[in-house]
Each structure stands twice: as C-alpha cells, then as structure tokens.
C-alpha cells in the first residue's frame, strides 16, 4: 500500500514538473525525395531558453524502445533523413528548459508513403517533325551521396503531358518506362508545351510535374522549299559581295605595304638611254681620234753633255756622209770611164 502511494505521488510530481514547460505545437514532417525534415512550432515560454529532443521508434519491431535522434536542439526542426526509407516510425519531440521538460508530441512517419516525389529533369528537342523528350530523375540526396528514387520502388513510369500552346485543346499524355520518348503525329509548325511527372502504380503515388517546356515542330522533317531558296540566294549574295570586297581589300593592302617598304622612284633618262644601247666595248669613255687627224711638233730636250756628244756625233756623221759621197762619186766616175 505504501509503495503504491509513493508511485502515485511521484507520478503527480512528475506531471507537475512536466506541465511547467509547454509542449511544441503543430509538429509536421516535410519529405521530398526521401529528404525528410521534422518541424514544429515553438511554444510560448518566458522563463528561459528552450531546447528540444527528438526520438524515434520503429513500429516494425514491437519490442523496440525509443532512440534519440537528436538532443539539445536550438532550432525548431530536425533532419531525420538517416532513418531507413523502408521503415515505419513513431517520432516524438519535446521542449526542455534546464531540468524541466514538456510532454512528448508524437507523429507517425513512413518514408516510402509520406515522401513527395519531385519532378524529373526534362529536355525537349524538335527534330524531323517530332518532339524528342528526354528525362531523368528525380534523385535522393543525403550528405554527399546521390541515387535515383526509382531504385526504392518496384514499378516506375514517366507520364508525358503535352498540348498546343495558347489553345483550349485537351491535354494528351503518354506513359513510358524509359528515359526518353518521341512524340510524333504532331501538327507542323505548331508550338507544343510539355510537362513530365513520375507515376508509381503499385504505391498509388504521382510525382510533381516538371516545369513547362515549349518547342515548335517542323513540317514532317522536310524543310520548306522557300526556306531552301532563301538560304541559297542569301548565300550567293554573300559570296558575290564578299569575294570582290576581299580581293580589293587584299590589293589595297598589297599596294600599301609595297609603297611603305618598297617605295617607287624615277630612273634618270640619260641612264635609261645608256643602258638601252648594246655594249660596244669595255671602255666607258669615247675613243681617241685617229693619228692622221692630229697635228703636232716633236720637241726634244737635251742636256749640255748630251749637246757636246751630239756635236761630236754630228761631226762624225758629217764626215761619214762626206766619205760616202766621195765613195759614190768615185764609183760613178769609174763607171763612166769604161764606157767612153
């Protein structure tokens, strides 16, 4: 009996102490692509700063006890992405101030059911009268790891929704298990808008729609003749204009460079005439006149000794001359005598 009274008294005291700190409000879980955050609103408390403790327990194991996920939190949120995506959990959060604490606030969380599947990344390309749509993702991210969400679910499809831009026509859709799809049988030269989302039939889940992308189709993959003619004529005009411009620009540049580095000058006229005549000899000056056209006197200069020698030589010459004359006279006389 005494033990029961003590237990009841302790329980009353515990309730009194715990009732001093108000409990958090509006507990909720924000989960996108298995990135999960437990959030709550702070209670009104004017006797000091509050901290928070978050703990979890798996429903899959009935005998399992609560384990702390995070303690002494100052913010009104807690990242619970570390919990297994395949589990089913009970989460609790309470407020604490010094040695006082509030009641637990409980919320249930099943990641595979509760998480929101985000939109995939989409690319659209117009080619051959059709629209080629490529998509990938979404991805789950935790810390530095990244992996596709489709790995967690047994079935996974992509739903492509498309419609004419600016019209009230019904939105058409195509489901595929692949990461690309070709939308054919579209009206030519028409703008279509496209959105893509993930669909998981076994889990009855539909992902968020991607951003709206619009692209114009071509005419059955064949370029119109007027476009070909326009491009051809334009190309010919460009060639016809650019070739002369390039030629005259090059010619002007050539002349400019030649004028700067090799300036032109006028060759003297007399040198032109001289170089134009055929070569007549190795002399560069006119030849001397003939001797018969020259008149000159001979002048001999002799010294005194030479004069005496000349006189003696003259006397000898005279004597020799007289002697020769006498000899000739005698010879002539002797020739005449026999004749008589």
UniProtKB/TrEMBL annotation:
Origin species, per record, is: Patagioenas fasciata monilis
Source taxon at top rank: Eukaryota
Tell me the segments the record calls region Disordered. 301-340
Q: One GO CC annotation, please?
A: plasma membrane
Fibronectin type-III domain residues are 21-112, 116-221
**Transmembrane stretches, start-end:** 225-254
Its keywords, alphabetically, are: Membrane, Receptor, Signal, Transmembrane, Transmembrane helix
Keyword Zinc present in the record's keywords: the answer is no
CDD domains documented for this protein? FN3
Q: Which InterPro entries match?
A: FN3_dom, FN3_sf, Ig-like_fold, Interferon/interleukin_rcp_dom, Type-II_Cytokine-TF_Rcpt
Protein name per its UniProtKB record:
Interleukin-10 receptor subunit beta
Q: Where is the composition biased (Basic and acidic residues)?
A: 315-333
- Signal peptide residues are 1-19
Q: Which GO terms describe its molecular function?
A: interleukin-10 receptor activity
